[in-house]
Amino acid sequence: MSVFLVLFVGTLVNSVIVSAKNDIYSGYSVHGVQLRSRSDQIVLYNLQSELNVDLWEYGAPSTRDAYIMVSPENRAEVFDMLDANNMKHYVHLPDVAKENPSYVTLVNVGESFEGRAIKYLKISTSNFSNSSKPIYLMDATMHAREWVTTPVTLYTIHRLVEDLKAEDFDLLENIDWIIMPIVNPDGYVYTHTDERLWRGTRSYYPTVSTTCYGVDANRNFDINFNTLGVSSNPCALNYPGHEPFSEPETRYVRDILLKYIDRIQIYMNIHSHGNYVLYGYGNTTLPSNAVQLHHVGAAMGAKIDALKLPEAGYYRVGNSHLVLYGSSGSAQDYGQAVGVPFSYTLELPGYGYGFLVPPEFIEQINAETWQGIAVTARLSYLYYRARNERT
Ligand SMILES: [Zn+2]
C-alpha cells in the first residue's frame, strides 16, 4: 500500500479539505517500452537520472513491457535515445492530467470525544457535482478492537484511486464513494495502549458514571434506541449510551447519511468477525425491499466464498436478528430507516482468532472483500438505475 494511504491514516492531518492535484502533470505522457534484454532496462534507468523519466513499471525482458512517464520538455530527447537503441515504444497515456483528474477529497468531519480528527475520503470523477450518481458509503472500526476492518477500507481506496483496473472503471464512472476508515479513533488508540479488546468509544459522562467510559457506538444510533440487545449498565460492552447520538463519532456518521441521503444507495458498516452480511432490522422487522437486500447481500457472500481460504467459514446472509442476534440503535438499522436502500453490517472472517486476526490474513481479506464490495456496488447500481428510470 502506498505512501498516500500511510499518510492519510498515519498523520490525520488537520487540513479541512485537500484535493489531489494532477494539474502539474498536464502534458506528461506515459509510454510502453518493449524490453529485449537487461541492457534495455539499463537504458531506461539512465533516462531516469538523465532526463527525469519516471519509471512507472520496470517491466521484464521479453515478457512485460516497461512504462515510463515523460515530461513534454524531455519527450523528444527521450524518444531519440530509445530510437538510437532500437527500442520499440508506444503511447500508453497521451496526457496524464487528463487521464487522472483530481478526484479524491479528504474531508475532516470533526473531532472525536478525545479530540482526534475524524476523516473520510470522497472519491468522485465529478467532485460530487453529478447528483444523478449514487453514493457508496463505507466505514470501519466503529468497534475499536476490530482492527482488521480498517485495511479493507484502505484497500478499497487503493483499488479505486491508485490501482484502478480497466475492468473496474465502471465503479468510478457510475458511482461516487465516501469511505471513512476509522469511525472510533479514541477506542482504536485505547486498544493499542491499554486494552486490546476494548469495543466502545472513550467518552466520559460523570453524571452517568464516574468509573466507566465509552458506549457501544453501534447501539448509539437513533433507531429503536435502548430496546434490544443492550445493557443499561454503563460498564457493559453493549451499553448504548444515555441518549441516542450521545457520541460525536456516531453523530458524524449520521450527518454523512443525512447530508447525502438522496444519493446514498448502499451503506456498508464493516465489522469483525464471523463471516456475515447482515441487514435490518435488529428487531426482526424486515425492510420493504428485503428481497433486494438479500439478493445483493447474498451475491456478496457468494463472491467472497468463491475466493475464501479453505479454513474460513462460509458467509451467512440475512436479517441481523434472525441470523445473528437482536440489536437496537445500530448503524445498519439507522441507515435503512433514514432511507438507504441497501444498508448492511459486514462481519469479516476471524479464522478462529476472533478479533485478533493475525496480520498475515489482511491481504486475503482485502482481496476477497474488495471483490464482494465490487459486486454489491454493481448490483445496487443496477437497482438504482432501474428505480430512477421508473420515476
Ligand atoms: Zn463490531
UniProtKB/TrEMBL annotation:
Domain of life where this protein originates: Eukaryota
Residues in Peptidase M14 domain copies: 80-380
InterPro entries given in the database record: CARBOXYPEPT_ZN_1 (IPR057246), Peptidase_M14 (IPR000834)
Active-site residue numbers: E347 (proton donor/acceptor)
Keyword Hydrolase: yes
GO molecular function: metallocarboxypeptidase activity; zinc ion binding
Biological process, per Gene Ontology: proteolysis
GO CC, any one term: extracellular space
Keywords: Carboxypeptidase, Hydrolase, Metal-binding, Metalloprotease, Protease, Signal, Zinc
Pfam families (alphabetical): Peptidase_M14 (PF00246)
Signal peptide (UniProt feature, chain positions): 1-20
Record flagged with keyword Zinc: yes
Cofactor(s) essential for the protein: Zn(2+)
Family: Belongs to the peptidase M14 family.
Name the UniProt record assigns to this protein: Jg18010 protein
Organism: Pararge aegeria aegeria
Lineage of the species this protein comes from: Eukaryota, Metazoa, Ecdysozoa, Arthropoda, Hexapoda
Gene (UniProt): jg18010
